[in-house]
Automatic annotation (TrEMBL):
Protein name: ATP synthase protein I
Protein species of origin: Phorcysia thermohydrogeniphila
Record carries keyword Membrane: yes
Bilayer-crossing regions: 12-34, 40-61
Keyword annotations of the record: Membrane, Transmembrane, Transmembrane helix
Length: 69
């Protein structure tokens, strides 16, 4: 049982990194798409990149809070 719990904890830590990266990539993709649609490059890309970064930080905080309980 100890190894299973250890495995679950390690997996949770890996998922935190994946969630952080995905939030940034999704924000970047949305911004790039909108910039191409409205011909405003690079402003919407930068804006959504920042939104994705902070969404990723929020996910990291939430997951770490859940893991440390």
């Amino acid at each position: 049982m100890g190894k299973l719990k250890e495995y679950i904890e390690r997996t949770s830590y890996m998922m935190v990194g994946v969630q952080f990266a995905l939030a940034i990539i999704i924000g970047l993709a949305i911004g790039y798409y909108l910039d191409r649609q409205f011909n405003t490059f690079p402003w919407l890309t930068l804006f959504w990149l920042i939104i994705g970064f902070f969404a990723g930080l929020k996910n990291v905080y939430r997951e770490l809070k859940k893991v440390t309980k």
